Amino acid sequence: MSLIESEYRAPWWLPGGHLQTIVPAEFMPSPKVDYRREIWDTPDGDIIAVDFSTPEPADIAAPVMVHFHGLEGSSQSHYARKLMAKCAAEGVRGMVVHYRGCGGINNRKPRAYFAGDACELDWIFARVKERYPLSRIYSMAVSLGANNLLFWAGTRGSKAASYVDRMVAVCSPLDLVRSSEVISKGFSRVYELNFVITLKQKALQKAKEYPELFDAERIRKVKRLNEYDDVVTAPMHGFKNALDYWTKCSSLPVLSSVTIPTLLLNARNDPIVGYEILPKVCDVPACMTLEYPDTGGHCGFPQRKYEGSFGYLSKRTFDFCFNGR
Predict the structure, then answer these.
(1) Which residue, 49, 40, 45, is CA-closest to 108?
(2) Which residues of 87-120 are buried (b: 16+ CB within 10 A; e: fewer)?
(3) Are 293 and 20 contacting, i.e. CB atoms less than 8 angstroms apart?
(4) Rounded to the nearest 5°, which phi and psi values hold at 67?
(5) 10-residue block means of pLDDT along the chain (325 residues)?
(6) How far apart are CA 229 and CA 109, in angstroms?
(7) Going by C-beta distance under 8 Å and a sequence separation of 6 or more, which residues neighbour residue 51?
(8) DSSP SS3 for 271
């Protein structure tokens, strides 16, 4: 286990965690990626969308990179496009696994997705391993997806290590309770509101399909993530309330049980996750590398033009997964 000094430095003309979060997502160009989509049937009769970057490698034993997006993200998110473009350029089989209801499709079941859905990752990685038995399998996830990946690895231990060779968790809200406090204050409320808007739209659609399971009036009144998780996420996925959900699905308490070589990459100025939750070297297992650059924002990590079109996150993911550093 080690806490390494990060090479990342944000451009001087883009100061602060908010600009370093918003500008890469909304204003900086991301590479165009041509995807091939598959619809996968889940074990419980639902569906998810899985997008493969093209051109795909002809070698059936080519390495596989499985990407999990953040809250309300998709294969079109800037971080996903950069990672998948690099996969296509490097001969790696890149795939973006969308959570239920994401990627522009309405899933069949009333349930959606949540930050500690380890059972979902069980069958996804089992399917990937069965389909590509000769390949080394890697995974990179961001934000909510990163917490989910770490939670799965921590609760599954050696079983998870039988599926995934190395993984990278970026900007993970390791302590969901404390991160919820960060996003609910100051300018960070802007991010919270953006999430709430799309989550409410999906929930209201589900309320039309399953009126006996959803209270549309309560959903319309939701203005904060804790209210949304109280009204929708928690009851739909078997939790008492938002606090119970956040407490039971935080990945921080299970990090010590992770056995997969892992890079935990969080910027200290992340305006959504915060920095006080970041674990110390003594809190994590020997297989985990910690990287906490002072700058980068939330899943932003903007770079100057000459530093590469694939972005820092893609470069760092490949360095850790394929070069072991």
Answers:
(1) 45
(2) bbebebbbbbbbbbbbbeeebebbbbbbbbbbeb
(3) no
(4) -110, 135
(5) 90 96 94 97 98 97 98 97 97 98 96 97 98 98 98 97 98 97 96 97 96 95 97 97 98 97 98 94 95 98 82 97 91
(6) 18
(7) 35, 36, 37, 38, 75, 84, 95, 96, 98, 103
(8) coil
